[in-house]
Amino acid sequence: MATQDSRVIHAPPSRWGWSRRAPIWCFVVLAILVIARLCAPYALRWVINRRLNEIPNYSGHVDSVSLHLWRGAYRMGGLRITKSGGKVPEPFVAADSIDFSIYWRDLIHARFVSQIYIKNIQLNFHRGKSDDESQLNADQRWQDVIHDLFPIDITFLDVKGGVLRFVDS
After folding, report:
1. Containing domain of residue 71, as a range?
2. Is 0.85 surpassed by the pTM of this model?
3. Does residue 71 lie in a domain region?
4. Neighbour-count burial of 40, counting CB atoms closer than 10 A to its CB (0-12 exposed, 13-18 middle, 19+ buried)
5. Does a structural domain hold residue 2?
6. Which of 51, 69, 121, 140 has most Cβ atoms within 10 angstroms of its Cβ?
C-alpha cells in the first residue's frame, strides 16, 4: 500500500522581495512625474493656442508657456490675438507676458481665487466703415475664452505698461 507524503512543497523565496522592488517602483513613478513636468508646458501651449483659434472671427497665438508649480501659477509669453481677414492693421490684443497664479492669502480663508500680472499689453479697438474693418466685439464668447484659460475668480489684476487705443476711421 502506498502512502502519501504529508509534506507541502513551497516555492523558493523570491530573490526580489518587496523590500527590493519598492525603490525601483519609486524611481519609475519619479521618472514619470519628471517627464510629465517637462512635457506639460508644451501640452498646455498647444491647448491654449487651440482654444484661442476657436474664437469666431479671430485667431490667436501664444509663443511660450511656463509652469511654476511652487506658486500654483503659469505664465504665457508673446500673446497675440488678431482679427481674421487681415483688414485691421493692429492686433486686437498683444501682451509680452501674462502671469496667472493662485492668491495664497485667500486660500487660508477657504477662498480659491487668483491674481494676474500683465506686462506690456496692447488693446486696439477699431471702428471701420464695415464689419471687416472693425474690431470692437467683446461679447460673451471672450468671457468664455478667459474662463477656459483660467477658470478661477480674479481678485487682483496688475498691469505694467499697457496701451489702450480706439481708432475711428
Report:
1. 18-168
2. no
3. yes
4. middle
5. no
6. 121
